[in-house]
Each structure stands twice: as C-alpha cells, then as structure tokens.
Amino acid sequence: MHLPDGLIPLWQAVIYWILTIAVLAIYLFKLSKKEEKEKKIINTAILAAVTVAVSSLSIPSPFGVPIHFFVIPLAVILLGPLSGVTVAFLCFLIQFLFLGMGGITSLGANTVTMGIVMSFSTYLFYKFTADLDERLGIFSGTFMGIIMATLTQVIILLAAGVATLEMLMSTLIPFYLFVAVIEGTANLFIIMSIYKLKPELQKLDKI
C-alpha cells in the first residue's frame, strides 16, 4: 500500500503532510502531559522497530501479489491511536531511507492512510466491540482499520487521477479484504497471548 514519489500531485502531497504533522504534534503534546514519558517512548520505539521488520517481509498470497502485514492495528490496540500514527510514520520513514519503500513526498499520504485512518478506525471499532468481547474487538478493530485505510487510499488515488474506480475496486479491495481477515486472525492470537503473558499491558495508559 506504500505510494511512491511522483504519483500524487505535489499540492495534494502537501495537504497530507500538513495533516500528518498536525496529528504528530497532538501526539507530542499529549505525551508531554503523561507520566512515565520515557517508558511510553520506549514502547513506541520497540513497536516501530517490530513494525519495520514484520511489514518489510513478503509473504506469498493466492492473488499472486505478496502480502505485507501492517502491524499498525496491533500497535494501536496496545498503545492507542496517536501512538499508532507515530509508529506508522517512523516505520515509513525508515523503510524509505533504508529499504527504498514508499517515498518522501508521499510519506504524508502513506501516513494518512496507514497511520491516521487505520489507527483511529482500528481504535474506534476495537473500543466499540471490545466491551462485548475482547476477541471480537481485536479482530473487528484490525479488520475495519485495514478496510478503512484501503478505502482512503482509493479516494487518494482517485483524487490524484492515476487510477479508475473500477480498477481499484477489482484489485485493491479484494486483496486487502483477504489481508484484513488474515491479519485480524493473527492479531487475535498474538494480542491475547501477550495479555496472558503480561496482563498489565492490557491496562496500559493509551495515547
């Protein structure tokens, strides 16, 4: 889902960068008001490193296109939505600098889709359903976070005039529906295992 440089008109890329900077500024402001800031920064850095490593792996899929897990929903459920945006931004920056994934002008757009939209969608659907059942919350949060991010990218690509709705609906949507199911199931087992090993993580103060 990483958009490269040159795909989005520069004036649109600037808008996405402004949105990204604004949300990161809110994160830093909220972080400054929290106790144990150092611990929260360390947790965010650890999850950013995990996200870089895992999302850089290519896994074969029946669609003929390799799967790259996002990991952002996992970070959101453990640390909160603004932390998820920060993890996403750091991940995309590192992947651009060292792996040639994405781009610098498109970094704002990539953060909007897989950072802002995915993080807040994941968190809202997780909170909405977790009161009914924690497992349902983890799966539905992950699933809907990925789907909402995919729909956002469809809108971004249409606004950039680089693809048609028919093409995107027949390619992006089916593929990321598949990814959403797989990652939602994986997150269910991973997060529940983490909570069993470290139950105190379930009560972390989220940002």
Q: What report would you give on this structure?
A:
- It contains seven helices and no strands.
- It is 74% helix and 0% strand.
- It is an all-alpha fold and 207 residues long.
- It has one domain: Arp2/3 complex 21 kDa subunit ARPC3, CATH 1.10.1760.
- The mean pLDDT is 92.
Keywords, separated by commas or semicolons:
74% helix; mainly alpha; 207 residues; Arp2/3 complex 21 kDa subunit ARPC3
The major sheet is characterized as: none
Distance between the termini: 25 Å
Low-pLDDT runs of 5+ residues are none
Query: Proportion of β residues?
Result: under 5%
Rounded radius of gyration (Å)? 16 Å
Instruction: Report the CATH topology name.
Output: Arp2/3 complex 21 kDa subunit ARPC3
Q: What is the second-level CATH architecture?
A: Orthogonal Bundle
Query: Taking all residues together, what is the mean pLDDT?
Result: 92
Give the overall shape, derived from the CA principal axes. globular
- The overall number of domains is 1
Number of strands: 0
This entry's quaternary arrangement is single chain
Structural class based on helices, strands and sheet pairing? mainly alpha
What is the count of helical runs? 7
Order of helices and strands: HHHHHHH
Helix content: over 70%
In CATH's first tier, which class applies?
A: Mainly Alpha
